Amino acid sequence: MPKERKGDNSFGVASVVLGVVGSVLGVFVFPIVISILGLIFGITQIKKEKNAWAIWGIVLSILGIIISALVIWFVCMPLVKGFLQVMQCQADPTLPGCEAFASALGV
Questions:
Q1: pTM above 0.90?
Q2: Is 1 inside any structural domain?
Q3: Within a domain: residue 36?
């Protein structure tokens, strides 16, 4: 088993890179996984040797997770609300707000 070098910050550098990628591409769903990996690498680096790379990696990874979660929330919630509205209008086309749906069905 190779002996660890003092001052090895490879996990910290990987954490920063993954944190930046996750934060910049946080408008897509997949980077939340990249940010979580960056967070894991940052925590691993902190356990090995605390340095600025690890701290910045953790901060950027958390930022990427927050951005991805907000994007998921603001994209998915209107879709879920629209789906529920369609289901309600299918059940009772006379409900308020279902006029367009009822006219499309010919009711």
A1: no
A2: no
A3: yes
Task: Print the domain residue range for 68.
Answer: 10-105
Domain contains 80: yes
CA distance 98 to 93: 6
Distance between CA atoms of residues 86 and 90, nearest Å:
6
Q: What is the pLDDT along the chain (107 residues), one digit of tens a residue?
A: 455 556 788 899 999 998 888 888 766 656 788 899 999 999 999 999 889 999 999 999 999 888 888 888 888 888 888 888 888 888 887 888 777 766 665 65
State how many domains the chain has: 1
Measured CA to CA, the distance from residue 101 to residue 107 in angstroms comes to 9
